[in-house]
Amino acid sequence: MIEFVILLGVIGGWIVVASTLFLMLAMGKMWGLAAVLLLVLAIEINHRLQERYMETIVNATPRAKEIAAHIFEMNELMLLSSYVVSLVLYETVQKYVEIVVKIPVSR
Known about the structure:
Blueprint: H1 2-27, H2 34-56, H3 62-96
Helix pairs in contact: 1-2, 1-3, 2-3
């Protein structure tokens, strides 16, 4: 199950980056705040999974519990850093890439 938890952290990080970047590029910078709700949701899911997992491994060694706790902390850090990376990518795209949308004019 722990591999599943790590995979969820990675996939969740990619979802946070993609959705934040898309919202900010398509709808404006302030929409990046809407992605904070997604970030909080992902962190809450991580906490719920941690509670369930820690209840499941009651008979495990203290070292196994410690490793599991660190993995859940790592997932949370991946989610938070994903949000920060999307903000940096947004600033980079805005600074160095010009996006031009041309609409054909009919006569």
